[in-house]
């Protein structure tokens, strides 16, 4: 693989100049609105707005914010589900000269309350659906429902003077102290991030971009603003709610040209082998290490002209590197390079003493730039520790990523994983110390250690090793439920291992090598083990066991409590749909997360399309189970 002569996008685009960086986000947005007033800006299945329409809606909301709070660069929280409304809220807060703080309604209320209070949000923007939750969070803030905004209010541009140095947002990421930390960014830095994405990916007004990331993640910044500040269209989809088949339909229906998602791996695993996406010109990977087999799989579903993009980015730095692969690129190593530094960024590799090292050596990846985050909200000590002055004496600052890397002779960077206790799971950067802190707050747990295990090739899972205080021993289900009150779902371990004591090194640290490999057997659950009773239940239990690498599976065991996660759920669904020829979404699976409940859905659909002989066979099977379960299965045929 000739890394020094990598391919690049070739489609026409308007270069984003450095001059455009020295303004506010609303200034650039209004320029785009003047250029493309009738062009599609954002579209979902039930709503679409042109740039002119979007600008008018944003202006009305921005005026409502100013009417409540007046001028001033203060935090305003957003509590809205994924969709057009949250995008309107982001742009309106910025137009009002405020700082947006996105809150994901699916997060535990304790986490949302901490983020609301820590950010010192003066106002919470929500809708009627989330109003009660917003009222509960906003003990010291005003609450405004977007559903109550006056549709006849002025929709003219506000023409506020907003400095490029003004704060644009606070995004909360996992923190090692046991609480999330807020990363701050300015308008100038956001615009320079748009410059990097625009010029690197050749984003233009003719592009259609998928948008699946939560607005509380830094990845959303690299989707929203490159689209809205270039005249491209943005197409939001809540994949957790709608499922992977809806995402595939979106890519085809809306002729998406740039597809990027934290769940690209899940998506590829769920695809029908015959599916193709001829309009895609770029599929973007981000998050964890990217392996050759994942790139090879992606290339099967796209046209010969489509590129695969590999990136490294952090919330504190934005995009750091990029690497493009086309159909002809030969990948000779298992781990795919993450490429070369993007515009305005320099990547250094440092040894344990903080000194630069030569190509070929392994060191910590440090990012040097004028456009790094100002730091962490209300955490000056942490900011000082992570953001360093230029060791060469320049005006730029340097951020220590905690990632390890190695440079090839031509400067191409190979990512080699994490240096510290921070990990990345399904695109989320996680401080395991925060999970450990949540575990140690539980009365039954004396000691906790969390790490990452690759249970299957390419599938990483969080594993928690626990030392308990004594009797009674809590069930895995009870521990998971307690964690769910404090942590989002992607931070809850898939596997729990109970120990009498933690193995220690002579210096008193956890001896990672001495930790036992988890036994992939059924954990201690609240639910009693009930074996499969019918052919369908037996086949479903076998699929679960193969995907989860665990057994035996009881028909009332819940998928998440058995160590399942979103990626494994996709793999289960893919096999179930193929084996039984049924229709089932992620949402219906999570609403019916046991073998018995899944068997009901399969039986109902099988009965609806079955012939006489097949119905008699199913009825014979149902004689072996309870009358109540039999009635549930038959209801799908008789209704």
Structure description:
- This protein is α/β, with parallel strands linked by helices and 639 residues long.
- It is built from 20 helices and 26 strands.
- The strands form eight sheets. It has a five-stranded mixed beta sheet. Strands 16, 17, 19, 20 and 21 form a five-stranded antiparallel beta sheet that branches. The chain has a four-stranded parallel beta sheet with strand order 4-3-5-6, sandwiched between helices.
Structure summary:
The protein has 639 residues and is of the alpha/beta class. Helix content is 33%, strand content 22%. α6 (187-201) crosses α7 (218-228) and α15 (535-548) runs antiparallel to α16 (566-580).
Largest sheet: 5 strands, mixed
Number of strands: 26
How many helices? The count is 20
Q: What amount of the residues lies in strands?
A: 15-25%
Task: Give the end-to-end Cα distance, rounded to a whole number of Å.
Answer: 60 Å
- Which runs of at least 5 residues are low in confidence (pLDDT < 50)? none
Average predicted confidence as pLDDT: 87
Radius of gyration: 26 Å
Share of helix, binned: 25-40%
Structural class estimated from helices and strands: alpha/beta
Looking at the structure, what is the overall shape?
A: globular
Strands of the largest sheet, in order across it? 11-12-13-14-15
């Amino acid at each position: 693989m000739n890394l020094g002569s990598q391919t690049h996008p070739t489609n026409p685009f308007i270069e984003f100049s450095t001059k455009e960086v020295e303004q506010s986000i609303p200034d650039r947005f209004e320029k785009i609105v003047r250029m493309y007033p009738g062009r599609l800006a954002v579209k979902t299945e039930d709503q679409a707005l042109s740039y002119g329409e979007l600008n008018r809606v944003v202006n009305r909301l921005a005026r409502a914010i100013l009417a409540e709070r007046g001028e001033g660069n203060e935090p305003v929280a957003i509590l809205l589900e994924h969709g057009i409304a949250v995008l309107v809220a982001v742009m309106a807060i910025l137009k009002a000269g405020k700082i947006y703080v996105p809150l994901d309604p699916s997060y535990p209320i304790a986490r949302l309350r901490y983020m609301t209070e820590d950010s010192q949000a003066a106002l919470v923007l929500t809708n009627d659906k989330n109003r009660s939750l917003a009222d509960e969070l906003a003990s010291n803030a005003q609450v405004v429902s977007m559903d109550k905004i006056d549709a006849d209010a002025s929709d003219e541009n506000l023409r506020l003077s907003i400095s490029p140095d003004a704060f644009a947002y606070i995004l909360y990421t996992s923190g090692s102290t046991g609480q999330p930390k807020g990363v701050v960014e300015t308008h100038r830095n956001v615009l320079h991030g748009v410059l990097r994405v625009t010029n690197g990916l050749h984003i233009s007004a003719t592009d259609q971009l998928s948008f699946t990331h939560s607005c509380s993640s830094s990845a959303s910044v690299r989707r929203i603003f490159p689209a809205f500040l270039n005249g491209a269209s943005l197409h939001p989809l809540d994949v957790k709610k709608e499922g992977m088949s809806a995402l595939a339909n979106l890519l085809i229906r809306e002729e998406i040209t740039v597809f990027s998602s934290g769940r690209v791996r899940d998506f590829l695993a769920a695809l029908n082998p015959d599916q193709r996406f001829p309009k895609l010109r770029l599929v973007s990977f981000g998050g964890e290490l990217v392996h050759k087999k994942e790139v090879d799989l992606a290339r099967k579903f796209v046209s010969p002209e489509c590129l695969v993009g590999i990136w490294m980015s952090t919330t504190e730095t934005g995009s750091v590197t990029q690497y493009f692969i086309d159909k002809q690129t030969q990948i000779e190593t298992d781990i795919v390079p993450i490429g070369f530094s993007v515009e305005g960024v320099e990547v250094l590799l440092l040894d344990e003493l903080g000194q630069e090292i030569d190509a070929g050596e392994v060191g910590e990846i440090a990012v040097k730039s004028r456009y790094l985050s100002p730091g962490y909200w209300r955490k000056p000590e942490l900011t000082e520790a992570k953001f360093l002055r230029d060791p060469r004496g320049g005006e730029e600052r340097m951020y220590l990523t905690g990632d390890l890397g190695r440079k090839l002779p031509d400067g191409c960077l190979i990512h080699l994983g994490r240096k510290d206790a921070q990990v990345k799971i399904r695109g989320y950067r996680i401080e395991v110390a925060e999970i450990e802190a949540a575990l140690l707050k539980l009365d039954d747990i004396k000691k906790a250690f969390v790490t990452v295990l690759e249970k299957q090739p390419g599938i990483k899972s969080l594993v928690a090793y626990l030392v308990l205080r004594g009797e009674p021993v809590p069930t895995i289900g009870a521990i998971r439920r307690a964690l769910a009150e404090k942590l989002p779902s992607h931070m809850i371990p898939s596997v729990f291992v109970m120990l009498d004591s933690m193995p220690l090194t002579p210096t008193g640290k956890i001896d990672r090598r001495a930790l036992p490999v988890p036994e992939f057997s059924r954990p201690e659950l609240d639910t009693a083990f009930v074996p499969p009773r019918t052919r369908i239940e037996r086949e479903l239990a076998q699929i679960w066991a193969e995907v989860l690498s665990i057994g035996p599976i009881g028909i009332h065991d819940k998928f998440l409590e058995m160590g399942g996660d979103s990626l494994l759920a996709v793999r289960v669904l893919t096999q179930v749909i193929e084996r039984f020829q049924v229709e089932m979404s992620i949402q219906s699976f999570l609403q019916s997360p046991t073998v018995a409940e899944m068997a009901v859905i399969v039986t109902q659909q099988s009965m609806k399309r079955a012939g006489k002989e097949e119905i008699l066979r199913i009825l014979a099977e149902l004689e072996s189970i309870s009358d109540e379960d039999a009635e549930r299965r038959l209801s799908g045929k008789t209704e």
